[in-house]
Structures are given as structure tokens and as C-alpha cells.
Amino acid sequence: MKLLPFAACCLLSATPLFAGDWVNLFNGKDLAGFVQRGGKAAYAVEDGAVVGTTAPNTPNSFLCTEKDYGDFILELEFKVDSRMNSGIQFRSESKPDYKSGQVHGYQFEIDPSDRAWTAGIYDEGRRAWLAPLTTNDTARYAFKQNEWNTARVEAVGDQLRTFLNGVPAASLKDSMTPKGFIALQVHGIKKNDAQMQVRWRNIRLMENPSKADLTPEAAAPIAPASLVADGAEVMLLQVDSSSPKAPPLHQMVGYSSPTSPTTGYTSMTRPQDKPPFIGRTPVVPTASCSLRREPCLPVK
């Protein structure tokens, strides 16, 4: 029996030889190492990326790794149609005795809507939201619409952490599923919905990372000075969100200062027209706000 040289074994192995090694889960050429579960959305490889295309009247679709993973760091890039919802499953399962094999488990949410909860942790097919981004506007602003975004998941023991473009997003302690597959989700759509696509590339994973490999816990940031003057009367002008748990990024808030005759407004985005004030009564402009990812700035 002829033995392969050690270097050749390293190249042929899909399993890291040492803890702390990065392994590519996707070879950039085909879908070897993956199996599709759930719905009938189409998965293909284009320009070194996995492309998921929606299909009408079918359940959520999942392109799943053949192997299960327990403790790991997962990194990849994704770009999503702004009209669709998607996600990245981790520590997920499909069992005949659970809802006829329905995929279930933790999900790194991909949410390009105004709610902007991308990188929140959702429990697909099971308990729903576990760690939404209700109070993390920094992570909500980190998403880049119609561009490539970088996702990072750190799952070690019962500690689950997500990052979006380097920004800490969700952190959760949960021990329900200690091990499972990674999967790329294409959300189901209705019969008359337009066809949409989501793309993933540079998918890599490190099993059994050391403490040095994990992202250090950051100290609590110092709160910035308020953009609204002390003693100002804050009034809600407009909310347009399907979720009661978090305001959309184009929510507008107006204020008038009791110490200054100047009135203005501050908003998470820049509306087309400044909402006028009549005394202390805000008037909502007829022009709609466009969704933009930019810091909140005062406007005179």
C-alpha cells in the first residue's frame, strides 16, 4: 500500500488537522458537501458564490452542510435582494420525528427590511426570536443594502454571538442544541411575488476555537452626548413598522427647545422634507422617508 505524503493528506482532508484551523465549507466551484432540505428554491454557483433563487408556493429552503458542527467560528459574506428575507442556520437539525423533518435551529437572520434585524438570532422552526436587535441600533446600521456584508458567528458551549461587518450584534446563552449543521436559507414566497436572489461566498469555519481566536468582550461604550437639547420636548412624528418591538430606521422624531426659538428635528434617516412645526404641534410631511443607513444628525 502506497502512503500519501503528509502535505497531500492535508490538502485532501476536509477536517482541520489542528484546532484553530480555518476550513472552507464551499469550494467556490460546485455544491459538494451540501444537501438541500425543505423547499424547492434553486441553488447554483455563479462567479464563486452560492446563489439562492426564490421559488413560489414552496416552504423555506435550506442548503445544508453534510457535516454537523458543535463549537466553532463561522465566517462568510452575503448579498441579499432588498425585498427578501433570508438567513444562515447554525447548530441546526432535520429529524424525522420533528415536524416530518422540518429544518429547525439557530439562525443568523438576514433582514434587509426597515426593521433591520440582520445578525439577530432567530430559532427557525421552533421558538422564533431569541435575540432580536431591538436595542442595538449600532448593529442595525452596520448592514449595507445591496452590497456584500460579512457575517460572523461564534458558538462555544452555550454562548452564541453574532457580528455584522465587524460590529457586535447578538449575544445569547442557550443550550438547547449543542451541535448541528450549517445551512443557507432561501425564504419561501407567494405565488405572485417577484423572483429574488441571495448570494453567499467565502464560507469558512474554524472548529474548537481557542479563547484567543474569539472576539474579546468589549467594554461598554460611553454614551455620546445627546443631539437633543436639555429640557427639549420630544414628540413622535411618524412610525411605519410591521413590528411593535423595534422602530424602523426611518422613524422620525421631532423636538422643540424651550430655551431657543429655533426648532428642528433629528431622524435616523434623512426625509425628503423637513417636518414643519406650528408652535409645539408637529406636522408630518406628506413626502415619505427613504431608507438610508447613516448616523442620526440634527437638522436646522
Q: Can you walk me through this structure?
A:
This protein is mostly beta strands and 300 residues long. Helices cover 4% and strands 39% of the residues. The protein is built from 2 helices and 21 strands. The chain has helices at 6-12, 137-142, and strands at residues 22-24, 34-38, 42-46, 49-53, 61-65, 72-80, 86-93, 104-110, 121-124, 128-131, 149-156, 159-164, 167-173, 181-186, 197-207, 233-238, 252-256, 263-267, 277-278, 281-282, 297-299. The strands form 4 sheets. Strands 1, 3, 4, 6, 11, 12, 13 and 15 form an 8-stranded antiparallel β-sheet that branches. Mean pLDDT is 78; it is low at 6-13, 220-228, 234-244 and 252-300.
Write the SSE topology.
Layout: H1 6-12, E1 22-24, E2 34-38, E3 42-46, E4 49-53, E5 61-65, E6 72-80, E7 86-93, E8 104-110, E9 121-124, E10 128-131, H2 137-142, E11 149-156, E12 159-164, E13 167-173, E14 181-186, E15 197-207, E16 233-238, E17 252-256, E18 263-267, E19 277-278, E20 281-282, E21 297-299
Antiparallel strand pairs: 1-15, 2-5, 3-4, 4-15, 5-14, 6-11, 6-15, 7-8, 7-14, 8-9, 9-10, 11-12, 12-13, 16-17, 17-18, 18-21, 19-20
How much helix is in the residues? under 10%
Distance between the termini: 80 Å
Largest sheet: 8 strands, antiparallel
Shape call? globular
Structural class: mainly beta
Q: Name the quaternary structure.
A: single chain
Query: What number is the mean pLDDT?
Result: 78
Strand content: 35-45%
Order of helices and strands: HEEEEEEEEEEHEEEEEEEEEEE
> What are the low-pLDDT stretches, counting only 5+ consecutive residues below 50?
6-13, 220-228, 234-244, 252-300
Tally of strands = 21
Number of helices: 2
Output the radius of gyration. 23 Å
